[in-house]
Specification:
The chain has 158 residues and is of the alpha+beta class. The chain has five helices and seven strands.
Length: 158
């Protein structure tokens, strides 16, 4: 799936993409912005083994002019469909997340679709609002193996 200019596209995520995705998710600044903790290599590959087995997950690589610049996926959490994305830090600020979400929403017709962003991650909050997601809650997120405790904004697209 591509955008109107054919510069930005999505393709299916494959096991060959995992080293690139591991590097993206290990970036310290990206984790600070997202309110996440980097996975260990073993945990990362274990998580992706589960993802590849789950038929409900739609995992895509984000490409710009054929170069991998991030990823986006639709997945189920507590019975609800969610969307999440990760843009490599060296590609921030170029509208790639906005284009990725637009492309994914064309492919995924599931509704309602949920998303969560750290409340101080203004860029992600704007991306979701531009895509038509509506803020439904602002709350303190709990610390987990993957997330730091911080305020999050929950969104829904109906």
């Amino acid at each position: 799936m591509t955008d109107a200019t054919d510069a930005t596209s999505l393709r299916e995520t494959t096991p060959a993409d995992l080293p690139t995705l591991f590097r993206f998710q290990a970036d310290e600044a990206s984790n600070r912005m997202a309110g996440t903790k980097a996975y260990s290599e073993a945990a990362f590959y274990g998580r992706w083994e589960e993802i590849f087995k789950d038929p409900r997950v739609i995992a895509r690589m984000l490409l710009e002019h054929g170069q991998v610049v991030g990823s986006i996926s639709c997945f189920v959490v507590d019975g609800a469909d969610h969307i999440g994305y990760w843009i490599a830090r060296e590609h921030w600020g170029r509208g790639l997340a906005t284009r990725a979400v637009a492309l994914m929403l064309r492919e995924v017709e599931r509704r309602p679709l949920h998303a969560t962003a750290a409340s101080d991650n203004a860029a992600s909050v704007r991306v979701l609002q531009r895509a038509g997601f509506r803020c439904v809650a602002r709350e303190m997120g709990v610390e987990t193996e993957r997330y730091v405790a911080r305020e999050v904004v929950r969104f829904v697209l109906e």
